[in-house]
Amino acid sequence: MSHFESLWFEFGKHILHVGLDKDFHLEKRGHPAFDVTNIDGLMRRLEEHGVPFEEVFNMPGARRFYTYAFFGHRMEFLEWHDKPESLMTEAEKAVQG
Question: What pLDDT sits at residue 24?
Fold first, then answer.
């Protein structure tokens, strides 16, 4: 019988599935990034639960931070205040007009 580990995250109508296997190794560069609308609230919540994170200040137009999942994979969270058109989805471009 094989054993497979996985995690499922629900974000409103979106679901993220992360599969883990015995040959897993940390990826330093590739990581998921999530757009959020209340980054201050998210950082406060992480602090309340003792989850470490590092805010970085090198992306013009956004506040962002990194944290690590319990299995060591880096995750990025961003809140845009001036998102470049080159990073916008088609839906975001349509709203811009």
Answer: 67
Q: Is the dihedral of CA 11, 53, 68, 88 positive or negative?
A: positive
Task: Determine the 3-state secondary structure of 68 from DSSP.
Answer: strand
* Protein fold of 28-96: 2,3-Dihydroxybiphenyl 1,2-Dioxygenase; domain 1 (3.10.180)
Residue 65: how many other CB atoms lie within 10 Å: 19
Question: What residue ranges do the domains of the chain occupy?
Answer: 28-96
* pLDDT tens string 13-65: 878 777 766 776 666 677 888 899 999 999 999 999 999 999 999 999 999 99
- Of 56, 33, 53, nearest in space to 45 by CA: 53
